[in-house]
Every structure is written in C-alpha cells, then in structure tokens.
Amino acid sequence: MRCRAGIASKLASSSRAIGLAANTSVRRPSTYAGASPNFFAAFGAKPAEEFGAPREVVDAILHAVDSDNPPTRVAVGHEARTTIREALTARLEEVTAQAA
After folding, report:
1. Residue 84 and residue 39 share a domain
2. How many domains does the chain contain in total?
C-alpha cells in the first residue's frame, strides 16, 4: 500500500502542476504559440471545475493498477468515454463500408 499512496500523491501533484487544481490557470507554452491561438484562448478561459476532479483520475488509475486484468487504456469521465466511443464507432463503420 505504501507504493500506492506514493502513486496517488504523485498523480495529485501532477494534476496541480498542469493546472487542474482549483484557482489555477492554464498557460500556453511558447512552443505552441502559433498552433491555434483560438483553441488556447478558449481552453484557458474554462474554469478548473470543467476539467473534472483530479481525484477521479487518481482513483481510476489506482483501480486499473489493482486489477488482475488491467485495461490498456483508462478513459476517465463521461466526455472521454463518449469521445472515444464515437471515434471508434466511426472507424468501425468505415472498415465495415470497405467490406461491402
């Protein structure tokens, strides 16, 4: 359990470091200055609460780590699961159409 507590602590610290903790803002790295100013402006204007609870991410990862058959990927939150499901469904429909 000591290892697990260390993982939880590191994940929570990482969440704070990337701006997911309350009362923090997301800063645009200079590396991406020309990438998409509109995206970064909209992303940075979102309240921290919109990104969900960092604890939910920690719990999902720890659940996967403790599993006898851990998943290859961990999708946390309704939006992530919906987006992944839609993308995979579109890919499956494309492959199915090719076989017709």
Report:
1. no
2. 2
Instruction: Write out the residue range of the structural domain in which residue 96 sits.
Output: 75-100
Q: Are residues 64 and 79 in the same domain?
A: no
* Whether 85 and 46 share a structural domain: no
pTM, two decimals, is 0.47
Assign residue 76 a region: left if phi > 0, alpha if psi is -120 to 50, beta otherwise? beta
Could you give the 3-state DSSP secondary structure of residue 50?
helix
Distance, in Å, from the CA atom of 86 to the CA atom of 82, rounded to the nearest integer, reads: 6
Predicted confidence (pLDDT) per residue in 15-32, tens digit: 555 545 555 556 666 776
Residue 54 CB burial class (10 angstroms; 0-12, 13-18, ≥19)? buried
